[in-house]
Amino acid sequence: MSVEAKRKQREPLNVFLRRFSEQVKRSGVINQHKKGKFYVKPKSQKLKKESALQRRKRAEKMAFLKKVGRIK
């Protein structure tokens, strides 16, 4: 998806740039790029379960350390 714009004969540069930027906005190229910039691949079921187990173990360990009095 590309945008092409040719400068018309005797067209001022600022008018050409404004026209080109409007074409880019209408085409949605910038929005697509922004959406894909921070794409995070979804985790698999196995990874979700493993991370949940790690969180649970960490929480149990912290609860134990608080109960014993090693951390406040």
Structure summary:
This protein has 72 residues and is mostly helical. The chain contains three helices and no strands.
Architecture overview:
The protein is mostly helical and 72 residues long. The chain is 67% helix and 0% strand. The protein has 3 helices and no strands. It has helices at 13-27, 29-37, 45-68. It starts with 12 loop residues before the first helix and ends with a helix.
Give the overall form: rod-shaped
Q: What's the tally of helices?
A: 3
> What summary fits the major beta sheet?
none
| Parts with pLDDT < 50 across at least 5 consecutive residues | none
User: How helical, in percent, are the residues?
Assistant: 55-70%
The whole-number mean of residue pLDDT values reads: 92
Number of individual domains? 2
Rg over C-alpha atoms, rounded to the nearest angstrom: 27 Å
What is the distance, rounded to the nearest whole angstrom, between the alpha carbons of the first and last residues?
Answer: 57 Å
Structural class: mainly alpha
Query: What's the number of extended β-strand segments?
Result: 0
Give helix and strand order, one letter per element, not per position. Answer: HHH
Q: Which percent band covers the strand fraction?
A: under 5%
Summarize the topology.
Layout lengths: L12 H15 L1 H9 L7 H24 L4
Keywords for this entry:
72 residues; mainly alpha; 3 helices; 67% helix; rod-shaped
